[in-house]
Amino acid sequence: MRLTDRVALVTGAGRGIGRATALRLAADGAAVVVNDIDAAPADETAALIRAAGGRALAVVANTVDLAEARTLVASAVAEFGKLDIVVNNAGTTRDKMFHGLTDEMFDFVLDANLRTAYHTTLAAMPELRDKAKAEIAATGRPAYNRKIVFTSSVAALMGNPGQFNYTAAKGALVAVTKTLARELGPFGINVNAVAPGFVETRLTAAKESGGTYGIPQETRDQLLGIIALGRFGQPEDIANVHAFLCSSDSDFITGLTIPVTGGQLGGM
Ligand SMILES: NC(=O)c1ccc[n+]([C@@H]2O[C@H](COP(=O)([O-])OP(=O)(O)OC[C@H]3O[C@@H](n4cnc5c(N)ncnc54)[C@H](O)[C@@H]3O)[C@@H](O)[C@H]2O)c1
What we know:
Layout: E1 7-10, H1 16-27, E2 31-36, H2 39-51, E3 55-60, H3 66-80, E4 85-88, H4 103-123, H5 125-139, E5 146-151, H6 154-158, H7 164-184, E6 189-196, H8 217-225, H9 235-246, E7 257-260
Parallel strand pairs: 1-2, 1-4, 2-3, 4-5, 5-6, 6-7
Helix pairs in contact: 1-2, 1-9, 3-4, 4-7
């Protein structure tokens, strides 16, 4: 229960990695604000947390809009009194080889992966930075380290055909992790990122099964061959590292992007 008394916000927590992260943070003792753009999955995640004895609040918001990000943070504070941890997990793909990329696909993916993280983190500054600043003024140090986590991707570390838009956004997250770590370090705020490899969610399901998301089965087979541990990741594999970066166990780590790939060649 290393997150007892902490309040965490996880974006994109209705499904996949975000849901596993919300469940894990709650299991570690945090009260969790479950954000998604889709109400039913967000409610379901919150219900799963409550059924396991945890505290959760589902909030539908699309933080591409800064006003919605501010409302989201206000909801967290209204329900749980404060906010200590932000996991910027929301994201999605619209893959296309570069020569066929449209402005619409570029903007959509930049918004979903980067602007959501920018706005959610900005909206949380009064809770993270201002609170720490007041504690430093009063006692010389923050009461405890607060945490910001970004969910990047190994695609940004090694490049990935068809993902100009996605790697632009996820690469930017690697860069802003370093910038914010420097800005917010004096306030005892750790800023880190996780770069998942291939994790089994709807984003990586076989494309032949239909739908907007997914990748071709042939690519899935090739990928499996370059993963040292010989299996695809599960959402819980990423949630474990998100949770580590949200806990005091990582208090002396900041500005880092941790690949969690099972040992994927080219992006260990
Ligand atoms: N699955 C992988 O292999 C993999 C690899 C690397 C990185 N990632 C990253 O991990 C994160 C989670 O991905 P996943 O695989 O669990 O995907 P997922 O599609 O299963 O879940 C993502 C959730 O985010 C929500 N979401 C999308 N846009 C949003 C917005 N604007 N505001 C709030 N919520 C929003 C979706 O509704 C969905 O519930 C994403 O940032 C993704 O890019 C995934």
